[in-house]
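Entry 12.
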Amino acid sequence: MHDPTVIHTDLELFLVGWYRARLSQRPEPVCRDVEVDTWESWAAGGPYPNRLLLIRDDGGPATSLLTADLTVGLSVLAGSPENPKDAVDLAAIVHALRTEIPSTDPDNPVSAVTGAFGPHSVTETQPRARRYMTFTLSVVGKAL
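Predicted 3D structure (tokens):
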């Protein structure tokens, strides 16, 4: 008998929905109207959002037949380079919420957060201040 075929949940899609739900439930004003996505829409000519959380799956090694350790990059864009308070505050909340991501819910692929770096300031030329962080997440796949 051979091993089962395993598929992993789209981690970006899961985290976009997860962070949209969690941030919309937060009482802090900086968590209101946060756009959560996987790409910077203004790069294609769209408007600059007031507050944006970008999530990117950077991949990682399989650790067993069912598990993998995946790194995700998260960028918070808010405020302005001259006044980054909204970016700093929102990034701190996004970073803190990482501890709530793992769950035994069968629709949640994340079993643990095994590492986190940041948030760090990113210097660039655009109207919003950026804070960047990474998380390493242990994820569990499902039989196909």
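Annotation: The radius of gyration is 16 Å. DSSP finds two helices and seven strands in the chain.
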